[in-house]
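Chapter review: from sequence to fold.
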Amino acid sequence: MFCAGQGAARTQGATMSSAGRSPPRGLWGLWVFVIKYDVRLLIVRMAHLERFEKELRGHMPMEEKPLEPQMAASGVPMWTSDAPDAFTTESGRKWIWAHIGPMRDELAPLGLSASQLEIQYIWNHADRWTRKQLAAGFAALRWTIEQELNEKFFVFLDKGGAELFECDAPFGSKVAAAFPSANRELKEAAQCIALDKGTASVFYAIGPLRAELARLRMKWGRHSTSSNGMSFSMK
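The token string follows.
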């Protein structure tokens, strides 16, 4: 899924056209950065955090298949005892990092820097925190992620819009072949259409048109005669 966002990543600036022009003013607030992000990653990770926090607090019934009894049965318990003040084992810490380590990197494209620091903070203290403290750490992490997401603005594209946004020749192969030097701007015009920014699309599309007219003017001069004998002028 594609999303365009603004917030902490605003310093990355706006996309520039191939001619070096800035996008129309209306795009400055929207076109800060555009990424392709699989939102399922975040959903799965958040579910894991909530489930593990629940298990650390001892609030997960056996019918929900808590992980610790399964790990203990295989000889690698996740914590030293079932007491709230018990510490995690090395196996438990490895399991924790196997889940929150990748999540730290997965949050980077969304600009959730505070959440990334929270993950590192948990890992730095995992060997000395009790189950109760770890549960509080996971709760704080989930809260931080939710707060950072609420502070940002995201625009999501549906399947058709995402396909148009990614397409290298959005106006067809014939147009791409006829204006090879303008393909970048034509692609940006199509991306504006995908974002429902019609006026901005014209901004990007007019550049290649003007460049081609200038080229024709240089080739044929100010006056020329068409195939049907009619004379026309290019100023």
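Two observations follow directly from the output. The two ends are 46 Å apart (CA to CA). The first strand starts at residue 2 and ends at 6.
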